[in-house]
Amino acid sequence: MKAIIVDDEKHVREAIRLLVPWEELEINEILEAPDGQSAISLIEEHKPQIIFTDMVMPVMGGAQLLEWLHTHYPSGKTIVISGFDDFQLVRHTVQYGGLDYILKPIDAEQLRSAVFKAAASWRQDESERQRGQQLNIEMNQIRPAYWDKMLSNLITEPSGFDAVTHSFASEFGLDRSVRECRVAILSLDTISSMLKQKFESNMDLLFFSITNICNEFLHASKQGIAYRYWNSDDAILVLLYGQGSAEQIMANIQQGIWSVLRSKVEIGISSVHAVPSGLILAYTEAKNALYMRNLLLKDKKIHMYTGQASSLPPLICFSDYAEPIHLSVRSGSAEQIRKAVQLWIDAVKQLDVIDLGMLELWWQEYTVLRNRWLNEWFGDQYPDIKIESDSSRFQLPIDKDGSFSVILWQEQLTAGLIELSKQLLAHQHQDNNVIFEIAKYIQNHYHQDITLQEIANHFYLSREYISRKFKQQFKVNLSDYLSGIRLEKAKLLLLNPNLRIAQVAEMVGYDDEKYFSKVFKKMNGFSPNEYRKVNQP
């Protein structure tokens, strides 16, 4: 904290310096002035919290200084120290915010009490000021989100419009009598890739920036209001009022966004509708204007709703080109994958019109086929397969200029399929290793009572998966494979005439001699005894 002592008598200033416990009050800077005029200059520069002043001084007295402080520096806490016991001076002190009036010669205890009271009063005021500032900061942070929510609700619940028209008028300066408007949608899914990277960690800041740019143009002419639409991940809505050209207004906004952020956004604009009953329809029209736009027209960024469906382009289906892609992924060859994808892209490049609807349809086809392939290749293990370059949600491939790029789409699709192929090869390799480990396990434990469930538990795989993969690899069921090993071992043991049939059966994993003999005869065409007689040395 800081303090200033204003008195034309030097010995009084020195006395105050000696009597006040500055360190205890955490006052680390003490200023001095011989009159009110000099004090004003120091107060404006240093902003002291505690002010001691005499009432009768040359140039400017304490009464005038109190009046100046009351108007220009009310946060300071003033203590008057005067040699005049005058009611008018005391009254003037109280009237203009002085905390105490101490007579000379100074009473040390009275001065100490007054200073402590002044310091406590300033700290309390400062705490309230900081609380108020923090509250203002929080309100300013909440305010945009509050209005975004209120305005977003009007699209789905337009009946609430009349209840907030007065707030709109006072907050945004809009004419409450306006009963017609358009809706414009700014789609942030088409901002440039560089801008997306810049704001990747804080997309809220990007929404805030673009909304502010829009409102700078709209508020200046009272043409409407822009806000973040809470029911969409990547849209800013603009309610356009007045008689101005909607296309020209949005063109100006488009240019403003380009000037500040060096990126353009796609904008869809509805036709005129009644407020509030037509807001839902206006929003739908603006959305359709964006949805049906021809993505191949790179220079056209503002799209007016015309009410007419776009002319249908020649219909091509991704599934018609899926088989070469399917085979190329299985081949494991990146070159074959690139060639297969190129066939599809060559067909796409023949089209004069590509809109979002077509891209989403192709993406759905690809997703269905890809899931089918995953099930075919990985079976019940495919949920563990992670293809980082593929996404469950369709994302428009946008180049650095913010335009749809067939080439970029081709690169993304190819990269995803190459990664899938790598995963398939790795999985097949892992499959083969696991199946051979299972075969080795059976060879080492054939003499025990092992079951398919026991093997499944041991290798942390499902019974069905093991059965299917084992049959694919060895062309025989696992149970027949186990029986074959047991019976081959039994043939060797039967050559020993000292071993009984029951002993041989037990040694190869059969507890029941009769069952062993039955299986042996079924597999070899003769019983164990017959085999022993024929093959005795």
Automatic annotation (TrEMBL):
The modification 4-aspartylphosphate is found at D54. It comes from the Bacteria. GO terms for biological process: phosphorelay signal transduction system. Residues 2-119 form the Response regulatory domain. InterPro entries: CheY-like_superfamily, Homeodomain-like_sf, HTH_AraC, HTH_AraC-typ_CS, Sig_transdc_resp-reg_receiver, Tscrpt_reg_AraC-type_HTH. GO terms for molecular function: DNA-binding transcription factor activity; sequence-specific DNA binding. SUPFAM superfamilies: CheY-like (SSF52172), Homeodomain-like (SSF46689). This is Response regulator. The lineage of its organism: Bacteria, Bacillati, Bacillota, Bacilli, Bacillales.
